[in-house]
Here is the input.
Amino acid sequence: MKSRANSLQAWIWIIVAMAFLGLAQPSHAQSSCKGMTKGKCGSSSSCTWVKSYKTKKGNSVAAYCRSKGSKKGAAAKAKSKKTEAKAKASSKKKAATAKSSSAKKKATSKKAKAKAKTTKKKAKAKTTKKKAKAKSAKTKAKAKAKAAEKSSSSTKK
Here is the structure.
């Protein structure tokens, strides 16, 4: 019985290991261009030949064939960059508009306050002038009354 349980456990471990190895494959599929010769690579429309080169560290990299990549991905990236740029531009415009409108409101309110002040000053000046005229009129009337009194008293004597 023990040997049967051990063999069953061994099979379970093998199945789990195979499942794990199956899931642990790289997420990207191998390129159809990998391993092609220069002639085959040049004739394929989806592949391009990369010449050999030296890295900054001095290591030399052999020439190889690689996939050109999907045009859909490049177009999608270009579109997303365009939409990002448009979104940034529109947000900048909105911010500038908000700033200018708030500045206009402030300027308008300042103008209105200044106008109200000048209107108050003018009204105050008018009332002051009226008071001064009334006062001068009173003093003139008093002076006339005194003069009339003097003349009437001098004629009586």
